[in-house]
Amino acid sequence: MRFKWIVEPPATLDAVDDTRQAIPLVPTSEADCLRRLLDRTTETGIADREDASEWLTFLRALGLVDRTTSGYRRERVELTADELADRLRDGIYGARELYDRLAAADEPLAVDDLDGTVDLPTWERHHHADPEVVRRQRLRRLADWFVLCGIADRTAADYYK
């Protein structure tokens, strides 16, 4: 299963690992995990419970956090840029397709050039007032995550592999 949600990437990979480290190894409740994300992270821009919830879901999508019957727990993983890039492509909806599109391009692509790379599922298209804004935001965030992992580069307005 691939998750649709993708958070705004932080400035560094260390910030991702610090966020992951905020989740305990021993399962605990969602409320406790959200509180820990709020209290123990600074570089990821987690400002409220909603942001914390989005990060918790995103960490689950990457397989860095597991939801058990007893609550959420951190997975023991050596988090490298390559590992994170693989987990993005495997766990996030549209990531493989976007990466393949960037890799096949002969020149840098702007987010506008990525039209048709990833479509929103039917429910998503009907759920949002402006689904195009949501789709473009997800594409930009995915591309920015690829840049953070070192598997893509960025100019002022374009992305390339």
Task: Give a verbal description of the structure.
The protein is mostly helical. It folds into 2 domains: 13-74; 81-160. The protein has helices at 13-21, 30-40, 49-61, 81-91, 95-104, 122-127, 131-149, and strands at 65-68, 71-74, 109-110, 153-154, 158-160. Helix 2 (30-40) packs across helix 3 (49-61), helix 4 (81-91) crosses helix 5 and helix 4 (81-91) runs antiparallel to helix 7 (131-149). The protein is globular, with a radius of gyration of 16 Å. The mean pLDDT is 90.
Keywords:
161 residues, mainly alpha, 2 domains, 3-stranded antiparallel beta sheet, two-stranded antiparallel ribbon, globular, Double_WHD-containing_halo
